Request: fold
Amino acid sequence: MSRILVTGSADGLGRAAAQSLLSAGHEVVVHARNEQRAASLDPLVERGADIVVGDFAQRDAVRRLAAELRDAGPLDAVVHNAGVWSGPAVMPVNVIAPYLLTALLREPRRLVYLSSSSHFGGRPSLDGVDWRGRSAGSYSDSKLFVTTLAAAVARLRPGVLSNAVDPGWVPTRMGGPDAPDDLELGHETQEWLAVGHDRQALTTGGYWYHRRQLQPHRAVHDEAFQDRLLRTLAEETGTALD
Reply:
């Protein structure tokens, strides 16, 4: 059995993944951005989940949460599920937070990053990006950046299985009740990459949709762009990923 952190697990895909992993007998650490949302996770905590609380729009909160996780014992996997659709928190939550957690938590051997088909509309340019969330960020750009991060980690950490997942347009709070895609297949792919042991689940550097590996935006596997992104994020946060 594995110990797995699922970020953004108060509702939607993250909650579904955490519930399923708990039911399969894994040790699960759930996450909420504040105490009010953490209260909604009481049923999972009563079933044995650990919980961490921190607002991913705040870098200090991400660092504190990473230190808390290190003190609590090693993780086998992290599902970087937390994300926002619009507003000033887009870059801090969708890119900076998973980058910092990846840099600060070295022990997990499996990393799963939430991507989106929207990443195909992202611009592979780092000029003028507002990483601190002073203004509204581009969701498409954020998903291109985090998908590129997943590929870069796969290249730079050969002992780690790092993949990105497009869950589809699913009926969550973010996706809306009329979203046409399959919620179950969306979170099952996250879980499969986090704990699965068949041949495909043990690969790295992939972009996955419903357990099928697809070709991402061409910039994702451009090593020069990966390096520019990592260098920019290291300079921005003062924390290098090695």
Q: What stands out?
A: The longest strand covers residues 27-32. The CA atoms of residues 54 and 64 lie 8 Å apart.
